[in-house]
Amino acid sequence: MIDIKVPVVGESISEVTLLKWTKADGAWVERDEVIAELESEKATFEINAEQAGLLKHGAKEGDTIRIGDVVAHIDEKATAPAKPAATEVKEEAKPTTAAPEKLEPQPAADKNVKITPVAAAIAADKKVDISAVKPSSSTGKIVKGDILNALSNPGKISFNQQELNSREVRRERMSNLRKTISRRLVESKNTTAMLTTFNEADMSRIMELRSKYKDVFKEKHGVGLGFMSFFAKACSVSLSEWPAVNAYIDGDEIIYHDYADISIAVSTPRGLTVPVLRNVESMSMADVEKKVGELAAKARDNKLTMEELTGGTFTITNGGVFGSLMSTPILNLPQSAILGMHKIQERPIALNGQVVIRPMMYLALSYDHRIIDGRESVGFLVRVKELLENPEQLLFGKDPVKALLEI
User: Fold this and answer.
1) Residue that wins the pLDDT comparison between 301 and 74
2) Least CB-packed of 66, 167, 197, 340 within 10 Å?
């Protein structure tokens, strides 16, 4: 019998939570096959079978387990189950009198919504907006009962599929990740002299560039041209010019970084994660977009490694994807600054003595005033604004004409 123990996943991590078993108790597993998913305070990771054999669970889903404890056993001496012999399947002749199969109509409202054929047919017939219907099943699929409930209670909303006028109260255990987020946010507020400075950027040029080159960019690089590459590159240039914003305090010393490792805040169902883009100053726009997509996909699937989550020197967070117009982001310790992106909104502005409509975005830089003064924080943010409004400067790090004239 082989004991499967919880591996060491970080210097400061002493326990993990068993998220789920991917193989059932008593199931046959092959060597190196994933048998369970565990969650530490920083990331989710998998454990594998060390040998082929019969699996015996040693803990339940949701249990907290200490590093080095036994989580499962594998009986490597057990006999492997016989594989079923392949049999030839012959297609039976269909009776000629059979009626053709009726296809249920599908509502055209939202093709991404999961819904059963019967529920879809009722929704289409009764013109129910399925995007406003919350599924009651654990699979996340809308079923017939959900549509009938929406029809019988128009304009009334039930919480989590409870009966109307419910007074139910639920308690759920905090995950290790949520505990860590909570602890670090409080620590950040209590141990830094945090201030926030604001500015706004006219996003016209970037939106024009994306509209003009998005197709050829996608064809050339196999990835879409988003806003994050412009922001990451703009920040890498500005960080090189304002090194205090890219530094942090370590005891009585200030640690400066001659590179830009930018953390990108990614929201997942389990909480906020901040994977890191390494050496953004040396990356191309396509490199940034590819890496952001890769890290975001890993974050959604809980596949980020500890290395991908540690070591950033600066953070960018985008509340605009949720509709936020303005916010004051909290520092991501031990970093000393974080840039908040927000929703792009058309607003009237004064330009050359005329009132014009422009797609504007508020920018917020939260920073630790112990290490970054007002001159550095405002200078950094003004430089980011300048680079976003004149993206051609990202190529040289300065105005191309000034680069030509060497001034």
Assistant:
1) 74
2) 167
Tokens of 45: 């990771």
Q: pLDDT tens across 335-354, in order?
A: 999 999 999 999 999 999 99
- Give CATH 3.30.559.10 domain extents, the chain: 176-405
Q: Provide the pLDDT confidence category of residue 97 given band limits of 50, 70 and 90.
A: very low
Structure tokens at 145: 């009962």
Portions of the chain given CATH number 2.40.50.100: 2-75
Decide if 244 contacts 365 (C-beta within 8 A): no
Fold of 2-75: OB fold (Dihydrolipoamide Acetyltransferase, E2P) (2.40.50)
> Quick one: 52 exposed, middle or buried, by C-beta within 10 A (0-12, 13-18, 19+)?
middle
Which of the residues are catalytic?
A: 369, 373
Q: Report the pLDDT value the prediction gives residue 11, as an integer from 0 to 100.
A: 65
pTM here? 0.70
Q: Are strands 337-341 and 194-202 parallel, antiparallel or unpaired?
A: unpaired
Phi, psi (rounded to 5 degrees) for 298: -65, -40
Give 354's strand partners.
351
**What does CATH list as the number for 101-173?**
4.10.320.10
Note the CATH number of domain 176-405.
3.30.559.10
